[in-house]
């Protein structure tokens, strides 16, 4: 469950070695009136803020089957995942989720409501998954996927799933399917997924 208690642990930010405005080397320090270490250019005064990256995707369903993609890229090469990826500038989370589904699975979908929002602070990410109805059995996976396939709930390859956010989203879907209600879920994943 999400904890709404204040969290005063601030992990070290990603390092930006050079200033994007003048090219001088940055230093890491806490600027005046701030509470976190930032990349600061002492030459031009620019402060470079690092913000979480958004991952957007869908939980695609067709006839009680879930569409998964087998990754053709690292990290977690050859593991199964929901169609998802990094949001691009200029698009909404919904647009990004639909684009990623087209790129990774080649699936035509009807986008439903936002389903899970999962904070992944150790990876500096927030994951957004929408429910989606797949409109056809026709799949045309792109270069980031080895294959795309439909799985009944009892056939989900749990040991071969790529990321904890995928597992969490699927677990909620299974529980919600039994209840017949699909509320939006918001959770934190505070620690890294074990490597194997």
Distance between the termini: 26 Å
Q: What is the approximate shape?
A: elongated
The beta-strand count equals 11
**Biggest β-sheet description:** 8 strands, mixed
Helix/strand order, N-terminal first: EEEEEEEHEEEHE
Contiguous helical run count:
2
Helices and strands: which structural class? alpha+beta
Assign the CATH topology of the largest domain: Nucleoside Triphosphate Pyrophosphohydrolase
CATH superfamily of the largest domain: Nucleoside Triphosphate Pyrophosphohydrolase
* Mean pLDDT value: 90
- Would you identify the regions where 5 or more consecutive residues have pLDDT less than 50? 1-11
Number of domains: 2
- Strand residues, percent: 25-35%
Give the CATH architecture of the largest domain.
Alpha-Beta Complex
CATH class of the largest domain: Alpha Beta
Helix content: 10-25%
Instruction: Supply Rg.
Output: 19 Å
Description:
The chain is α+β, with helices and mostly antiparallel strands and 196 residues long. The protein has 2 domains: 12-50, Ubiquitin Ligase Nedd4, Chain: W, CATH 2.20.70.10; 53-188, Nucleoside Triphosphate Pyrophosphohydrolase (Alpha-Beta Complex), CATH 3.90.79.10. It has 2 helices and 11 strands, in the order E-E-E-E-E-E-E-H-E-E-E-H-E. It has helices at residues 93-105, 164-179; strands at 26-29, 38-41, 47-48, 53-62, 65-71, 80-81, 84-86, 109-120, 125-134, 145-152, 185-188. The strands form 2 sheets. Strands 4, 5, 6, 7, 8, 9, 10 and 11 form an 8-stranded mixed β-sheet that branches. Strands 1-2-3 form a 3-stranded antiparallel β-sheet, with no helix packed on it. The longest helix is centred in the last third of the chain and has 16 residues, at 164-179. Mean pLDDT is 90; it is low at 1-11.
């Amino acid at each position: 469950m999400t904890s709404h208690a204040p969290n005063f642990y601030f992990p070290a930010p990603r390092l930006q070695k050079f200033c994007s405005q003048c090219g001088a080397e940055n230093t890491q320090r806490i600027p005046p009136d701030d509470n976190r270490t930032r990349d600061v250019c002492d030459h031009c005064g620019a402060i470079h803020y690092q913000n979480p990256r958004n991952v957007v995707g869908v939980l695609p369903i067709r006839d009680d089957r879930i569409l998964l993609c087998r990754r053709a890229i690292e990290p977690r090469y050859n593991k199964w995942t929901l169609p998802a990826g990094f949001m691009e500038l200029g698009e909404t989370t919904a647009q990004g989720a639909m684009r990623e589904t087209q790129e990774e699975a080649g699936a035509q979908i009807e986008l439903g409501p936002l389903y899970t929002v999962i904070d992944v602070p150790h990876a500096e990410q927030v994951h957004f998954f929408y429910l989606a109805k797949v409109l056809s059995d026709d799949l045309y996976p792109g270069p980031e996927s080895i294959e795309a396939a439909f799985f009944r709930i009892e056939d989900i390859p749990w040991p071969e799933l790529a990321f904890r956010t995928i597992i969490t989203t699927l677990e909620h879907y299974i529980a919600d399917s039994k209840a017949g209600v699909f509320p939006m879920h918001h959770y934190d994943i505070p620690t890294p997924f074990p490597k194997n």
